[in-house]
Design goal:
The longest helix has about 35 residues. The protein starts with a helix and ends with a strand. It is of the alpha+beta class. Helix 3 packs antiparallel against helix 7 and helix 5 packs antiparallel against helix 6. Strand 13 and strand 14 form a beta hairpin. The radius of gyration is 47 Å and the shape is elongated. The chain contains 9 helices and 24 strands. It has a 6-stranded antiparallel beta barrel.
Length: about 450
């Protein structure tokens, strides 16, 4: 073999050896180099949705108390509605029975008949006697003014006592003492009312006693007594009659309790067999004009919620949207966001009754950044202490015997806002390849390879 052929053969063997070295070198590099997924940044306003529990809430509620039941307690017979039901005017809330109605009615009727018979007997006994006289009228007026004076003086003394001022029975000293003790305008007014009542009573008393000296007015003692007795029985008959009417009215109004306003029943704790005496509300209603809302406790939320914020409520087949109408600080020290409860959301929840029974529904408050910025995936952001950074992939071009490759470069970034899936940063990242994820640890300045599915 010639020297030329030997040289060519040696050169060929060398080429094969170099090729094999390069092949195995790349294979080893491929095995040991991190495989990364590259992404591009976008520009816009980051959006985040935070899940919250939105509870049905009635800002304005009206307590319905059946005051007649204080005098005529009842026992609930049957309840026709439940919490969350929408009622119209006239709808039956519950039925009840007035306790001991028949006994009370019989007793009043018995007393009425006895007084009516006593009046008849008295009139028969004095059938030739006049049934009224001017002197008796003056007497009735005097008694009426005396009652008014007693009430006025009692009110004044009680009012003064609340301010530490003691008023004696001598009314003539009251005004001076009130001025000395610097009594309030309210007490001063009560004293003036009492003084006026005494003047009126003194006049009525004088008119009555003067009647004994007036022959045109004065009547015999037996006539005066008869008329007074008759007036007393007549007053008692009127009082019994009024009680009979009140008892019948209580039966009519308490036997079938109906809604006097259109709206939602918010509270109703009465059930069949329960007693009710009018000392508390029978039920609570939110009137038609007092619409219910959704309320969210945002006290511990790390985001600022403001009126106008968008809210989403997921349904079975679609997402229903509403908005925050106001944010308020309640007396319980908590901060709440009020949201419009739309008919779609209410229907999706199965109605107000089911919503109240469930207690709440899941909603998402949508937060959107006020400014546009560079947006990258949250998975691309890394942290080291208080510093946050990303890796970008830079291409490096090799020479004759080396191939081109990518190198990871560490870049510190300033985060503006973040959500579960994305982060907005101040830095411009146009046309940069950002390393989103890798199959192993990525190091600054070290090669990386793009992962290709």
């Amino acid at each position: 073999m010639s020297k030329k052929n030997k040289a060519l053969k040696a050169l060929l063997i060398l080429a094969v050896i170099v090729s094999l070295c390069m092949y195995f070198s790349r294979t080893i590099q491929t095995i040991t180099t991190p495989k990364v997924k590259l992404v591009q940044s976008t520009s816009g306003r980051i959006e985040q949705k935070i899940s919250v529990e939105a509870a049905p809430h009635f800002p304005v509620k009206t307590e319905i108390t059946l005051n007649k039941a204080k005098d005529y307690p009842v026992t609930v017979d049957k309840v026709y509605v439940k919490k969350g039901l929408y009622v119209e005017v006239g709808d039956t809330i519950f039925t009840a029975k007035v306790n001991d109605y028949d006994t009370k009615e019989a007793e009043l009727l018995k007393n009425y008949n006895e007084k009516a018979q006593a009046l008849i007997d008295l009139d028969i006994k004095n059938r030739k006697t006049s049934k009224q006289s001017k002197q008796n009228d003056l007497y009735d007026i005097m008694i009426e003014k005396q009652d008014a004076l007693s009430k006025a003086e009692s009110d004044a003394r009680l009012g003064a006592a609340k301010e530490g001022i003691e008023l004696t029975f001598d009314q003539s000293q009251w005004a001076a003492k009130a001025q000395k003790e610097k009594a309030s305008d309210e007490v001063t007014s009560l004293i003036s009312t009492a003084v006026s009542a005494k003047s009126t009573f003194d006049t009525a008393r004088k008119d009555f006693f003067d009647s004994y000296e007036n022959r045109q007015i004065k009547v015999k003692d037996e006539v005066f007594t008869y008329i007074n007795d008759r007036n007393k029985i007549a007053d008692e008959l009127e009082e019994i009659s009024d009680k009979m009417v009140e008892l019948l009215d209580a039966k009519q109004s308490l036997t079938n309790v109906t809604a006097t306003s259109e709206g939602y029943i918010v509270e109703l704790d009465l059930k069949s067999g329960d007693p009710y005496d009018g000392t508390k509300s029978a039920f609570v209603i939110a009137k038609k004009e007092d619409a219910p809302i959704l309320r969210v406790d945002i006290t511990d939320l790390k985001k600022d919620v403001a009126a106008g914020a968008k809210v989403e409520v997921a349904g079975d087949y679609e997402t229903y949207k509403t908005t925050v109408t106001e944010v308020i600080d309640e007396t319980d020290g908590r901060r709440y966001a009020h949201m419009e409860l739309t008919s779609d959301i209410l229907r999706n929840a199965g109605g107000m009754s089911k919503l109240l029974q469930a207690g709440s529904t899941e909603a998402k408050i949508v937060f959107r950044a006020k400014k546009s910025a560079t947006i990258i995936p949250a998975s691309a952001l890394r942290s080291e202490g208080e510093s946050e950074y990303i890796f970008i992939a830079e291409y490096q071009y090799g020479g004759f015997l080396s191939s081109s490759n990518m190198v990871a470069k560490k870049m510190t970034v300033n985060v503006i806002d973040r959500s579960d899936t994305a982060v907005s940063i101040q830095e411009e990242m146009n046309y940069m390849s950002i390393i989103d994820s890798a199959d192993r640890a990525v190091e600054d300045g070290k090669p990386v390879m793009e992962y290709v599915e």
